[in-house]
Amino acid sequence: MSRERPDTSEAERRSRGIAAYASQFGIERSEVAPQMSALLGARMAEEAIQAAGGTAWQADELSLRDRSIVVLAALVTQGGVESRLRGHVRWAVQHDVSPVQIEALVTLLANYVGYPRASVAMEVVREEIAQMGLSFDEQAAG
């Protein structure tokens, strides 16, 4: 299992967190801290940035694609986190998860988490995919 290097500084971890959020939200790195602070408050924003710069999203046993699928499943299952789901749908597509595969994931989860929760998630997924200019007509990646 991958562990954070003991010599990884707080500044390095913060830099990785800023880069992760910039990528996920499609914003400039310089916009991350102010946007997160406005959304969450300064203390919680810094905690989130530091956490995002940790080892959870570092490439090791799971690819970024695999991690995105796991996070989408967790968010759909949790429910009530539509604003977080939106960003992770976009990030999953950036990590080579196709819209068709995301649709199949949410459809599968409906059997386990219930149709009301899954249908809300599917509405969010469909809105985000449409806003990205993509469709569900494409074939799932093999």
Tell me the name of the CATH class of the largest domain: Mainly Alpha
Shape call: globular
So, CATH architecture of the largest domain?
Answer: Up-down Bundle
The run of helices and strands is: HHHHHHH
| CATH fold field value of the largest domain | AhpD-like
Q: Structurally, how many domains make up the residues?
A: 2
Mean pLDDT: 88
Structural write-up:
- The chain is an all-alpha fold and 142 residues long.
- The protein folds into 2 domains: 1-61, no CATH class; 62-142, AhpD-like (Up-down Bundle).
- The protein is 70% helix and 0% strand.
- It has 7 helices and no strands.
- Helix 4 packs antiparallel against helix 5 and helix 4 (64-78) packs parallel to helix 6 (99-113).
- The longest helix has 17 residues, at 115-131.
SSE layout and pairings?
Blueprint: H1 10-25, H2 29-40, H3 42-52, H4 64-78, H5 82-94, H6 99-113, H7 115-131
Helix pairs in contact: 1-2, 1-3, 2-3, 4-5, 4-6, 5-7, 6-7
Q: Could you give a short description of this structure?
A:
This protein is 70% helix and 0% strand.
State the main characteristics.
7 helices; 142 residues; 2 domains; AhpD-like; mainly alpha
